[in-house]
Amino acid sequence: MQAITPVNPSADKAEKYELLLKQAEAIVSSESDLIANMANLTALLKDSFNWFWIGFYRVDTESNQLVLAPFQGPLACTRINHGKGVCGEVWATGKTQIVDDVNAHPNHIACSSLSQSEIVVPVRDKAGEIIAVLDIDSDQLATFDEVDAEYLQQLVELLR
Ligand code: SME
Predict the structure, then answer these.
(1) Of the N and C termini of the chain, which has fewer Cβ atoms inside 10 Å?
(2) 66 CB less than 6 Å from ligand 1?
(3) Which uninterrupted H or E stretch holds 137?
(4) Start-to-end Cα distance in the chain
(5) Closest Cα to residue 107, out of 131, 134, 87?
(6) What is the pLDDT along the chain (160 residues), one digit of tens a residue?
(7) Cα 77 to ligand 1 centre (Å)
(8) 53 ligand 1 Cβ < 6 A
């Protein structure tokens, strides 16, 4: 009987991210408009992983809120206050957050009841200021891990 090689889901995911990063670099290096680049990055992520919701929220310094920016997926909340929801927490702390079960996270904002887990990554400008967050929601529990965090952080670095 032939030996079965165990599938390593993380390796498979890392390979997808490596390819995605190359595509993203090519796109971002030929375009300086932030919104256009955010839009294409969400499209690339949707194509590669088909998660439930993938999108950016931008920091609006006038209202001191996060405002919905390019995304792929169903209709979403448009404004999030500083410190509110996972997105608002990441804006306030500057640290990537992985939430395995959004229903067990007291501060989570449910834009859709189908969302089960999420990852939120801060997006910084050249000066290191947080200008946006990348929010990705899954309709499955515990979808995201440190591999996602590492690659998504590399991805948003391209927007600096
Ligand atoms: N769940 C996010 C809100 C944004 S939507 O899910 C698209 C949060 O808790 O910040």
Answers:
(1) N
(2) no
(3) strand 130-138
(4) 52
(5) 87
(6) 555 655 565 669 999 999 999 999 999 999 999 999 999 999 999 999 999 999 999 999 999 999 999 999 999 999 999 999 999 999 999 999 999 999 999 999 999 999 999 999 999 999 999 999 999 999 999 999 999 999 999 999 999 9
(7) 7
(8) yes
